[in-house]
Design goal:
- By secondary structure, this protein is mainly alpha-helical.
- It is built from 6 helices and 7 strands; from the N terminus they run ββββαββααααβα.
- The chain is elongated.
- It starts with 11 loop residues before the first strand and ends in a 14-residue tail after the last helix.
- Keywords: Cell inner membrane, Cell membrane, Membrane, Transmembrane, Transmembrane helix.
Amino acid sequence: MSAFPRAAELGLIGCHVCGLVISADMPDPDDAADELACPRCGSALHRRKPYSYMRTWALLIAAFLLYIPANVLPIMRTASLNDIDDNTIISGVVELWVKGSPDLAIIVFTASIVVPMLKFLSLGTLLLSSQRGSGWARPQRAKLYRLVEFIGYWSMLDVFVVALLTALVRFGLLSLVEPLPGVIFFGLTVVLTMLASMSFDPRLIWDGRDSDD
């Protein structure tokens, strides 16, 4: 048994909107009929976000499926007087490196490849371990969620990097740059991973079997 009682054991519930903590008696925290309203802001109160696992898994899987065409399909077309070239994220990174912009290539690779993959792995780990009621590294998993949530505020950087890519790649005399379907899939991936992070309830990390505490 944990030395620190949970809020549910003390009959407390916190508003996820304004942060107010009140005393409440909710027989079934996932039953919409038992919803309470926050006396300060009027938001519905839940001991745990309703259907958190279901929503987070659905959004995460959808984001991963969209991430595949985001990397396979070209994200932009550059046209010069000599040729027309369609570029995916990876080919854009390679082109930046070859053209003498390794710093920008690293930024693009990190923001567009490394960060999304880390978000997929992190959220997947949090979901699986929480659903199994694992007591493994709970403080570290809570910190991991806060890190994912923090990165979420900067997720649109991925899209901005794509914009920088279209502006800074130089193929001789550049006359035209236009976005292609890949950038739409990439933007949708960013939005869905942000929603997945918001749907996950970090309090679920601390639920589970008492023997794991």
